[in-house]
Amino acid sequence: MxxxxxxxxxxxxxxxxxxxxxxxxxxxxxxxxxxxxxLRAPVRGLRAPTNPETPQPxxxxxxxxxxxxxxxxxxxxxxxxxxxxxxxxxxxxxxAPSLEALAQTIAGFNDCPLKFTAMNLxxxxxNPDSGIMLIGEAPGEDEDRQGKPxxxxxxxxxxxxxxxVGLDRDRVYITNILPWRPPGNRSPTPAEVATCLPFVxxxxxxxxxxxxxxxxxxxxxxxxxxxxxxxxxxxxWFDYTATGLGHTIPALxxxxxxxxxxxxxxxxDAWCDWLKFKAKFI
Length: 282
Prior knowledge:
There is one protein chain. By secondary structure, the protein is an alpha/beta fold. It has one domain (82-281): Uracil-DNA Glycosylase, subunit E, CATH 3.40.470. Helix content is 38%, strand content 10%. A 6-stranded mixed β-sheet has the order 1-3-2-4-6-5, sandwiched between helices. The longest helix has 18 residues, at 190-207.
């Protein structure tokens, strides 16, 4: 039994560490790969003498990515300071006149390291003219692969909830605080949230919804600017002030579907939150 469990534990450890992508079709024998030469100048008098009659071993050629070798991603560009990055994001977001332009602006934004570890940009899904905007935390593995929010297990639960209140994806609009998946599905850092917040704020302005549903603590605290946990503020109505709209938008925090999958006992409270939303807007 221990021999059969050990490989599964090793795979789970790699998944938790974020190693969930295959970068080559065949493994690479790193003992046969020539090490990168040192940048230091050689020290004279310390090189071992060689016999010209003795054949020297040939260095192994590093395989190219298209030959089955490891694909090495280009390193991200040097990052600015946090304040400069936020200012850059705010300026770029403000210049986007439409959702399509905003998506292109985010795709070309290189000051967030998450862009270089994610497979796809996850911008939004649904009907932006529906008047109902749902905001989650960040894409997961399935969302990262497909480039759409809430398509994994938590997305199926969200679809079921929407059906129970008389809605579907064609009658809501869904996005996240972060447009890129954090490695290993870890929680977003405060710096990552601060970097992406100007894009989320502009996203809300362009959609101009009648109501916001904030899924989970990260979305609720980020959009509402509060420090309380989701258990304290869920099910309560708040006013979100959109800078570029000149009016407030009612916002309702509730539990994230992924949390409900881990804590099914909280589904009752979440359903009460959705019934409050249904009574007011449907």
